[in-house]
Design brief:
Blueprint: E1 2-4, H1 24-44, H2 47-54, H3 59-71, H4 74-85, H5 90-111, H6 115-142, H7 149-177, H8 182-203, H9 215-218, E2 242-246, E3 249-252, H10 277-291, H11 296-307, H12 317-339, H13 342-360, H14 365-391, H15 400-429, H16 431-452, E4 457-459
Antiparallel strand pairs: 1-4, 2-3
Length: 462
């Protein structure tokens, strides 16, 4: 049972003693994410440049495509979370998502330049990501102590971001070595993704077994204590009711092997999510902040226009933000565990607000480039895993994946609307007007979130 605190303390109490290590399961999950991100980013590194400059899409069209890519997985996230919670099948459902993303690389390899096939392959990749995200994050929650969730998610996100850094570098190295043979990139991407699926199947455990046992059953047995608390085994002990087993045959019910009782778990489902007001406020804040978040691709396009960067440098812009994210993800998670998870989440969106302002300010080009990429990396380091760590303690047993999926879906749908709206305003009134509108919207969302975000719950002591 959890009770929400009402004071300023918004991180679970940390036990004294030596600092615990990151659970091995989290490291394995991070390894799979690293390998999968190498495979994914090998393909997606040049998509914004290709779609806008190569195919000539307008900002509105690009906003629709970018938003739909992010938001189309909303229902799949819910289905993946619900399916994982039913019977505790987090490993199986997430593994299906990883396999779907890996197979999408084969679709790109066989597309032969056909736009429809390429769109279908990219959709399959996004569907795979939508299916696997909530069950994977639920596994992190299940295998990590509540007081260390920030560090656990930060470690996972840092390893994930390492893959995001290596993927584009690998893709451009292959293109340079093979005279721009994109089929080679797709083939290598598929092989890397298949290796990630193999690691998942062989090394990732399922649910921790001790969580399925009642707390009373986990206590150590003292001298003279019987293993079954409901059975007395002394010589003169009273025995349970007797049942007839046939003519002249009787047996004691307690002579039969007794199954260890299992604590009841809530059944997962699309609507079977925690009903606590604190959890609902987290969902609302995720949607509010997501609705004021401009997609990364738009920010990179704004940088390219502002600085008049050569097209060959465009794919390397995400690497700058990813490098900052990689450096700060684990420290941000540890800081969130110590100081509370509300403040890093708000400060991270404040960094994004500064990035918007920097793009509007008359600052020299180099300073704008470094500042925007650094602030974008800070934004992701302080918000991505921290939001999941803030949500995790509010989720009841058996609803971890579904509860996280609802938060992620609310955020994805809100970002879909933000991308479409930003692209529409850009097309109608220009990029500066669109960026000013986004800045004002994010400032308002931050004010609302600072008042709505709950403190983390504390465990009640027996």
């Amino acid at each position: 049972m959890y009770l929400a605190t009402t004071g300023r303390r918004d991180a679970p109490p940390r036990p004294t003693g030596a600092r615990r290590r990151v659970p091995g399961t989290v490291l394995v999950l991070g390894t799979v994410s690293l390998v999968t991100d190498v495979s994914s980013e090998m393909v997606t590194a040049v998509l914004p440049l290709y779609l806008v400059l190569g195919l000539g899409l307008s900002p509105l069209q690009f906003g629709l495509l970018d938003g739909l890519t992010t938001g189309a997985t909303a229902l799949v996230r819910l289905l993946g979370g619900a399916g994982a919670d039913r019977g505790g099948r987090h490993k199986q459902v997430a593994g299906l998502g990883y396999a779907l993303s890996a197979c999408s690389r084969l679709g790109l390899l066989l597309a032969g330049g056909a736009t429809g096939w390429i769109a279908g392959a990219l959709a399959a990749d996004r569907l795979g990501k939508g299916v696997r995200t909530a069950p994977r994050d639920a596994l992190i929650t299940l295998h990590s102590p509540p007081e260390d969730l920030g560090r656990a998610f930060g470690t996972h996100r840092a390893m994930d971001t390492t893959g995001a850094l290596l993927g584009p570098l690998a893709a451009f190295a292959l293109l340079w070595a093979t005279a721009e043979a994109y089929e080679t990139v797709f083939a290598v991407s598929f092989c890397v993704g298949a290796f990630g699926v193999l690691v998942w199947l062989l090394l990732v455990p399922g649910r921790p077994r001790d969580r399925e046992r009642p707390r009373d059953q986990k206590r150590a047995q003292g001298p003279g204590e019987t293993r079954d608390p409901g059975r007395t085994q002394g010589p003169g002990a009273a025995r349970g009711p007797r049942r007839a087993q046939g003519p002249g045959r009787w047996r004691d019910d307690l002579d039969a092997p007794q199954k260890t009782p299992v604590a009841p778990r809530a059944r997962g489902g699309l609507l079977a999510v925690p009903r606590s007001p604190a959890y609902r406020r987290i969902v609302l804040c995720a949607a509010l902040l997501g609705a004021a978040t401009v997609g990364d691709s738009f920010l990179y396009l704004l940088l390219q226009r502002r600085l008049d960067l050569d097209a060959t440098w465009f794919p390397f812009l995400p690497l700058g933000a990813a490098a900052v994210y990689l450096l700060l993800a684990v420290p941000a998670g540890r800081l969130a565990d110590r100081l509370g998870r509300r403040r890093p989440l708000l400060y991270g969106h404040g960094a994004l607000l500064l990035a918007y302002g920097l793009l509007l300010a008359p600052v020299p080009g180099a300073a704008t480039l470094v500042g925007v990429l650094a602030l974008l990396g800070i934004f992701y380091a302080a918000t991505d895993g921290v939001l999941m760590a803030l949500t995790g303690p509010f989720l009841t047993e058996g609803r971890q994946a579904g509860g996280l999926a609802v938060v992620q879906t609310a955020q994805a749908l809100a970002r879909l609307g933000a991308a479409v709206a930003f692209g529409a305003v850009w097309t109608a009134s220009g990029p500066e007007t669109a960026l000013v509108a986004a800045l004002l919207a994010l400032a308002a969302a931050l004010v609302c979130a600072s008042r709505l975000l709950p403190a983390a719950p504390e465990r009640t002591r027996p």
